[in-house]
């Protein structure tokens, strides 16, 4: 019984490790979010930027057709980008996870190095490739076809986002596949399954947590992307990020921008909640197979 009684000299040393992280979250996450939430309830003033009259008009305005279309376009682009990254990332992740150490190191190097290049430089490279007189249209012209209007469209925005965010999908899936024993693949092959059946029944279910993590990362950053949609989508393809930028630095409508930012954060939190809940629900099914 004496072991159960806390000693007088006991000190919760775990607070030394949790404390700095909690302070970091408080200063750089909780306080800014609280500030944004406060500004979203203020009234916009063309002369004073804000007046301290509390109102819900900033949120009511989000139900206008313009903002609904803006949100639908942004969510659509983010979903297409996430699905494209998953489709392109799974083969890359599987090859890297099953490659020899030297080939894995080379593949990871080629995958991560583009992240060290500025997003603006990479986007301008795509503008040169997809432009009216770019490489793609030159190849199309050689085939005797009409030139394509890819640039300044949703397709161009998705291409740019997939190119930038693909590593965020590959790395979590690769980590999940590395934890799958090769013996399970060999057993399924010995039982008569081809590669696609083995992938659908073995690799995909067991790598599901990695897929969820990668999808959350790609979707979150795609939903709030700004540089790529502005440069590759032009003035016609407006998304939430560009709208927030204009309201903050062009029209100085800080309350309106704050309400938009909070809505994006709320959408992301809801998505993360349901994704984590789905992953927890799938865990027993996966482990029982």
Summarize the structure in short:
The protein has 289 residues and is mostly helical.
Strand order of the largest sheet: 1-2
The CATH class label is Mainly Alpha
Oligomeric category: single chain
DSSP strand count: 2
Gap between N and C termini: 44 Å
- β-sheet strand percentage: under 5%
C-alpha-based Rg, rounded:
24 Å
Structural shape:
globular
Number of domains: 1
Helix count? 13
CATH superfamily: MetI-like
Mean of all residue-level pLDDT scores: 85
Task: Report the major sheet.
Answer: 2 strands, antiparallel
How would you describe what is shown here?
The structure is a single chain. The chain has 13 helices and two strands. The protein is mainly alpha-helical. It has one domain (63-287): MetI-like (MetI-like fold), CATH 1.10.3720. It has a two-stranded antiparallel ribbon with strand order 1-2. Helix 3 packs antiparallel against helix 4, helix 7 (154-178) packs antiparallel against helix 11 and helix 8 packs antiparallel against helix 9. The radius of gyration is 24 Å and the shape is globular. The model is unreliable at 283-289 (pLDDT under 50).
What are the salient characteristics of this protein?
two-stranded antiparallel sheet, 2% strand, MetI-like fold, 2 strands, 73% helix, 289 residues
List the helices and strands and how they pair.
Elements: H1 14-40, E1 43-45, E2 49-51, H2 57-60, H3 65-98, H4 101-112, H5 119-130, H6 135-142, H7 154-178, H8 182-190, H9 195-206, H10 208-223, H11 227-233, H12 240-249, H13 254-287
Helix pairs in contact: 1-13, 3-4, 3-7, 3-10, 5-11, 7-10, 7-11, 8-9, 10-13, 12-13
């Amino acid at each position: 019984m004496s072991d159960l009684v806390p000693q007088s000299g006991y000190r919760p040393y775990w607070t030394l490790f949790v404390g700095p992280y909690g302070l970091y979250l408080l200063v750089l996450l909780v306080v800014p979010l609280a500030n944004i939430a406060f500004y979203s309830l203020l009234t916009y003033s063309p002369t004073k930027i804000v007046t301290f009259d509390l109102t819900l008009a900033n949120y009511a305005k989000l139900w206008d057709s313009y903002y609904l279309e803006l949100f639908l376009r942004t969510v659509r682009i983010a979903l297409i980008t996430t699905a494209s990254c998953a489709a392109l990332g799974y083969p890359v992740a599987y090859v890297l996870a099953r490659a020899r150490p030297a080939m894995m190191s080379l593949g990871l190097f080629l995958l991560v190095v583009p992240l060290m290049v500025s997003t603006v430089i990479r986007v301008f490279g795509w503008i040169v490739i997809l432009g009216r007189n770019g490489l793609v249209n030159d190849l199309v012209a050689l085939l005797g076809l009409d030139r394509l209007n890819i640039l300044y469209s949703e397709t161009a925005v998705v291409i740019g986002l997939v190119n930038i965010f693909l590593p965020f999908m590959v790395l979590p899936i690769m980590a999940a596949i590395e934890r799958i024993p090769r013996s399970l693949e060999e057993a399924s092959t010995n039982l008569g399954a081809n590669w696609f059946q083995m992938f659908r029944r073995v690799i995909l279910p067991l790598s599901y947590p990695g897929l969820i993590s990668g999808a959350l990362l790609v979707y979150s950053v795609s939903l709030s992307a700004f540089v790529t949609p502005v440069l590759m989508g032009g003035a016609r393809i407006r998304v939430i990020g560009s709208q927030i930028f204009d309201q903050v630095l062009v029209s100085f409508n800080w309350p309106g921008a704050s309400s938009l930012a909070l809505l994006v954060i709320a959408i992301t939190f809801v998505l993360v909640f349901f994704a984590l809940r789905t992953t927890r629900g799938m865990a027993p099914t996966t482990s029982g197979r």
